[in-house]
Amino acid sequence: MAILCERAEKRLLAGFMISKRRVASIGIVLVCASLLGYVGKSLHDLNRRLKCEYATAGVIREVTEYVKLHEGQLPRGWTDLPEGEHASQYVKMRFEMNIHELMDDPARIHTYIVPLSGDYHIYPHAERQLDELREVLEQHYHSEKQ
Fold first, then answer.
1. What pLDDT is recorded for position 104?
2. Is 56's pLDDT higher than 70?
3. Average pLDDT over the chain, rounded to whole?
């Protein structure tokens, strides 16, 4: 009877013991899952940044055209822009600013239209497009003053 009890006890303990191979396998699975999560989050963030920056580029073009067509007037809201409703989920625009504020401090143009993701990291032509908008605004601003 004592021998049977010892065997039953060893079997019971063996069921709770985890082999080194199983521990290593669990560790590898956890590391892979962590890496996959990190890569997935990074790709998601990159995709969001791309959408924000390219939508912002489109808004800069639309605002430039709007200013040309409306003789120096800035849009008053998203409805003034063709793709405004769609762009509003990716772009922050300070509609409360006016042409005088933008011309008094030319650096403000960088805070007038901004991607929701923050700064421009991916879109290479943002600075050039903002300069074009600034030039159009200056033309109308100076003609308005004369």
1. 86
2. yes
3. 83
Number of residues written out for the chain = 146
What pLDDT was estimated at residue 103? 86
Rounded alpha-carbon distances, angstroms, from residue 103 to 62, 70, 109, 124: 19, 17, 9, 24
Percent of the chain at pLDDT above 90?
A: 31
Instruction: Write the burial class of residue 75 (CB in 10 Å: 0-12 exposed, 13-18 middle, 19+ buried).
Output: middle
8 A C-beta contact, residue 70 and residue 137? no
- Can you give the three-state secondary structure of 38-99, one letter per residue? HHHHHHHHHHHHHHHHHHHHHHHHHHHHHHHHCCCCCCCCHHHCCCHHHHCCCEEECCCCCH
Q: Residues 22-43, buried b or exposed e (16+ Cβ, 10 A)?
A: eeeeeeeeeeeeeeeeeeeeee
Return the pLDDT at 140: 79
CA distances from 132 to 12, 40, 89, 99 (A): 78, 37, 24, 14
What was the pLDDT predicted at 118?
A: 81
How far is the first Cα of the chain from the last one, in angstroms, to the nearest whole number? 112
The torsion angles phi and psi of 95, rounded to 5 degrees, stand at -65, -20
